[in-house]
Amino acid sequence: MADIIQLLPDHVANQIAAGEVVQRPASVVKELMENAIDADASVIQLIVKDAGKSLILVVDNGSGMSSTDARLSLERHATSKIKTASDLFNINTKGFRGEALASIAAIAHLEMKSRLQHDPIGTIIRVEGSKVLSQEDAAVPSGTSIAVKNLFFNVPARRNFLKSDQVELRHIIDEFHRVALAHPCVEFKFYHNDSEMFNLPVSKLRKRIVSVFGSKTNEKLVPVGEETEVVRIGGFVGKPQFARKTRGEQFFFVNDRFIKSPYLNHAVNSAFEGLLKEGAHASYFLYLEVDPQGIDVNIHPTKTEIKFEDEHTIYAILRAAVRHSLGQFSIAPVLDFERDASMDTPYSYKGKTAMRPEVDVDQSFNPFSKEIRSTPGQGFKKHKQADWESLYVGLESKSNQPDGESSHFEVESDPDSVGMFGQEHTIAHFKTFQVQNKYIIKPIKSGLVIINQHRAHQRILYESFLEEITVNAGVSQQLMFPKQLHYSRPETAVIRDLRPQLEQAGFVFECLDDEAIEINGIPSAMAEEKVSDILDSLIRDVQQQVPGASFSQSDLIAKSLAKSMAIKSGKHLGSEEREFLIDKLFFCKEPDKSPFSKPVFVTLRAEDLEKFFI
Fold first, then answer.
1. Helix 205-213 crosses helix 165-182 at what angle (to 10 degrees)?
2. Nearest CA among 33, 114, 20 for reference residue 68
3. Collapsing DSSP states into helix, strand and coil, what is residue 432?
4. Got the DSSP string for 113-180?
5. Do residues 193 and 53 lie in contact, with contact meaning Cβ atoms separated by under 8 Å?
6. Phi, psi of 559 (to 5 degrees)
7. Are 188 and 44 in contact (CB under 8 A)?
8. pTM of the complete model
9. What is the pLDDT of residues 33-81, one digit of tens each?
10. Which residues does residue 131 pair with via DSSP β-bridges, in sequence order?
11. Mean pLDDT of 197-219
């Protein structure tokens, strides 16, 4: 048999490596910005066009590279961060694998400009699909500028898997946030399609967080600080009353590196135990400093997951630090078993002197006299002893009757209860039943129909909103008092883009600025107190493009609103509500499927029921 194993060509190996490192335009942004940080840059500019599909340009004023280093940086496993295997356990930089630039150059058109600060002239290198087209000396600014054009031009299958521009831009913004929040001492600028999205000057951490997420964030933050021999913890957590349904504002940084850690996330959630509403998620911006030899950052190609040598201790310290901060700033409830609340002095009585009480006593009062003497303003007599005995007159004759002959018990009638054996309680009297406040059962001639009430309401609302958005204008209820909602700039931009569809659905609002909107009217079927949660869910769905890029914007909005507003499982429905829900469901065009293609009801025929009793 002939030999079948062979070495892969370099360009194929680079494309395979690129599949691990470069998953979307945001991956390129992450790698280039982290390289700029490692180059000790104090100013970093990110310029993006078409959500990174056409252009990603990162310009820094860092140390720069010589012509030899610039050429060598495009080779696989070429790095200045480590020299021996032992260096992997003492890493203080962002990138160290030496695969980023080589992987990016394998699937894009790359142009690099770099110059050392003390050199009079720099170099320009142009690469296309791992092939170096040219390298020449040129007069360029000090630092490094890397432009990545036409991402995935030679891997069309990967390009087809990219989402819409809005979704890809959302991922780029996320990566930008992670780098900018980790380095408040660096100035960042971000432009998309020639419009400025962020301009973050050098500032302290709290100011950087406020600059990224909006001015209203400042009042939500509670500082956290703890220093031990194992870990040093700093940063902020959000107050419980500002918790949201989404997990957007949750950041962990270990040695200025953004990480994802469900284990540490659980520690923070346990610190908030008892303080959050069901389904709400607290925001946090927590920075951990540990000995580099106590962590392993080389377990994932994107370096967003790490291993701790003593994770149980860090878990306990983090939980205690967050809990202490919440208690210190009077956020968490304090239990004092020695305190009697009834002894507290009301605020209105503080500072006043105590008054001597005055008591009027009737010296002539005699409780044993036949007739109570009247007091001023009152005149009443003692009841005769026989009066109370009259309460029991006739009971003796009733008690002598045989048990069950004349006794009568009043039972509260329940129209929703089912009489199993009584003649007057037949199936004909009950059109629908509710089981576990989740399913509605409707008897039919051939058997039973079992309906999932949550999915049924989703289908009803979805078709209603879709018709209003695409055909008819929705009915709006005006609010007596306008409601102001605050968001980050990217979130406000999403609402501004969706304005035509939202107004068709029944919303009436104005964009006050880049971080706030004012709601004046909402759809008639929507409760005012749920507007904020519903819009939060809508923004999240649009940013993540759920359920997919192939659906229209109107369809996506209708699905998101239906998902948020549908009655939940566990809600009791009266008989009229159940009948109304069933009538509306079977008036829909596709009553058997929810908007997310899940079954709404099942039918049990009489022959199916009989099989259970064989």
1. 170
2. 114
3. coil
4. EEE-TT-S-EEEEEEETTEEEEEEEE---SEEEEEEESTTTT-HHHHHT---HHHHHHHHHHHHHHHH
5. no
6. -65, -40
7. yes
8. 0.70
9. 988 998 899 999 999 999 999 999 999 999 999 998 888 888 876 666 6
10. 128
11. 90
Give the residue among 598, 579, 278, 583 at the shortest CA–CA distance from 454.
598
Strand order in the sheet with 439-444: 433-435, 439-444, 447-452, 601-605
Under a CB-based contact definition with an 8 Å cutoff, are residues 211 and 203 in contact? yes
Q: What distance lies between CA 76 and its chain's CA centroid? A: 38
Give the separation between CA 538 and CA 244, rounded to whole angstroms: 13
* DSSP classification of residue 599: B
Report how far residue 401's alpha carbon sits from residue 73's, in angstroms, rounded to the nearest whole number: 105
- Residue 268 is inside which H or E element, if any? helix 262-271
Closest of 154, 117, 122, 149 to residue 135, by C-alpha: 122
Neighbours of 407 (CB within 10 A): 9
Instruction: Dump pLDDT digits (tens) for 288-338.
Output: 998 888 777 665 666 677 778 888 999 999 999 999 998 887 665 545 555
Contact 58, 29 (CB under 8 A): yes
The C-alpha atoms of residue 12 and residue 555 are separated, in whole angstroms, by 40
Nearest to 213 by CA among 234, 244, 259, 185: 244
Task: To the nearest 10°, report the CA torsion of 530, 533, 539, 540.
Answer: -140
Cα separation, 259 vs 178, whole angstroms: 9
What's 322-352 look like in SS3?
A: HHHHHHHCCCCCCCCCCCCHHHCCCHHHCCC
Residue type, 520: N
* Tokens found for residue 475: 């009915």
Find out whether 281 and 232 touch, Cβ atoms under 8 Å.
Answer: no
Which residue is associated with the tokens 């020639």? 194
Please state at what angle helix 489-497 crosses helix 165-182, rounded to 10 degrees: 170
DSSP string, 272-326: TTTTS-TT-B--EEEEEE--GGGEE--SSTT----EETTHHHHHHHHHHHHHHHH
Residues 432, 434, 439, 444: what is their CA dihedral angle, to the nearest 10 degrees? -20
CB-based burial of residue 45 (10 Å sphere; 0-12 exposed, 13-18 middle, 19+ buried)?
Answer: middle
Complete domains list, the chain, with CATH? 10-200 (3.30.565.10), 205-328 (3.30.230.10), 451-601 (3.30.1370.100)
In three-state secondary structure terms, 365 is coil
Cα–Cα distance between 514 and 343 in angstroms, integer? 50
Closest CA relative to residue 286, chosen from 254, 310, 311, 313: 254
Please tell me whether residue 463 adopts helix, strand or coil conformation. helix
Taking each continuous run of H as one helix and of E as one strand, the counts in the chain are 18, 22
Q: Which long-range contacts (CB under 8 A, 24 or more apart) does 77-81 make?
A: 78/102, 81/38
Predicted confidence at residue 398, as pLDDT, reads 47
Instruction: Please state, in angstroms and rounded to a whole number, the distance separating the CA atoms of residues 536 and 78.
Output: 44
Report how far residue 56's alpha carbon sits from residue 171's, in angstroms, rounded to the nearest whole number. Answer: 13
State which amino acid sits at residue 351. G
